[in-house]
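G., the chain you wanted modeled:
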Amino acid sequence: MQRAALIRLWLLAAGIVALTVAAAYAMQAAGDNPFMVLALASGLLALASTRVAEQAETRKALWLIIGVAVLLRGILLALDPLLSSDIYRYVWDGKVQAAGINPYRYFPNNEALIALRDSAIYPNINRADAAVTIYPPVAQMFFFLVTRLGENITTMKLALVACESGIAFAILAFLRRLGRPPTRLVAYAWHPLPAWEIANNGHVDALMVMLMMLGLWFALTGRPLRGAAAITLGALAKPFALLALPAAWRPWDWKVPALVLAAVVLCYLPYLSVGSGVFGYFTTGYIQEESLDTGSAFWIVTVWRTLFGITRADVVVYLAAAAIVLVAFGIVAAMREPRSIATGLADINRLLLVFLLLLSPNYPWYFLMVTPFVALRGGAPNWTMSLGAILLQNEVDWDHYVPYMVRETILYGAFLAACGYAAWRARQKDSIQGGRGDDLTDAR
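Predicted structure as tokens:
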């Protein structure tokens, strides 16, 4: 049986590699739609691989999983970024800092930076004439350090893939403590979202997720201050990591908030020569560009307006309600008694999923923060949210256009259906065992 399972795993691996190569060619030749179809197909094979890998001999399966993960990333590393140009800004910010200039001070096309222009990085920077950098200080420090090794996108992508190795180690450590098969790593390692958004596009979210998972490991193994420090550093690479802080905090504990504040101040200190400019493009254009101020960026608001029309202050009411819901989930996570690794991961996983539903980010790479949980916890909601994020790809305008709202509705509608299915499965399990179900995301 183990031998047959290993053969099936090899076949699934071959299919995923073939679909990944095909998706790369499809994106360049035919646009977003064929790419999304092929990437989703590879994701379904990754889902199938999770169950098959558990049936195979552990050592051989684990080596196969790691080998294929490296192969996939090697293929995508060799290609220019196909789905985003953000990485060029990362390299540029590193070069600017190496020249002794605050990266929050100038637009890339400012004459003060003319000596730094080249033919490989500068022409590919997005918003070069309209925006200073948006990335927080820990991301900036990372950009500076990596570009000291090489001022090119390949070096940056390699550094971000190295962050993935940290994510993989955290997943394996958690799986060991949870008593689950290490082969569940395949759910993350062969998942198309991290493969494309980190190895090919080189998104700094890899750094954020690595620090977040490290922080969760510390927090849930009895070292909350170290956990809070790592999570805060992750949030200073990209703010979404803050959602993991409840795992490191207990109500009325002043040490964690004090540590978080100190870390924020110390990390921003080297860049304060520009004053409030340290918040970069986020406060000077990003909110308007992404329609966060009008509410049209949020799927639930858009659905409401489609059904009932625009009502006065609807976006303010919605954001307030969303904040209350997220704070409530955070408080529940912080007050959980008894707290174990399993319950801590479940609480943070749930909080991340609720955040993604309520504030519906517009870019696939924002969903990378839930991809470790497909390995750690599985479940229809995690798989639906992480694979469905691929539908948000919107890189070319010459492909046959599927309205963005339609794709969002497929994603979030499928997620809500998955939650309903998971709740039903958990209830069935409860009725059979006569006990309490664990959590929605644990239901297969």
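The chain has 18 helices and no strands.

Shout if anything looks off.
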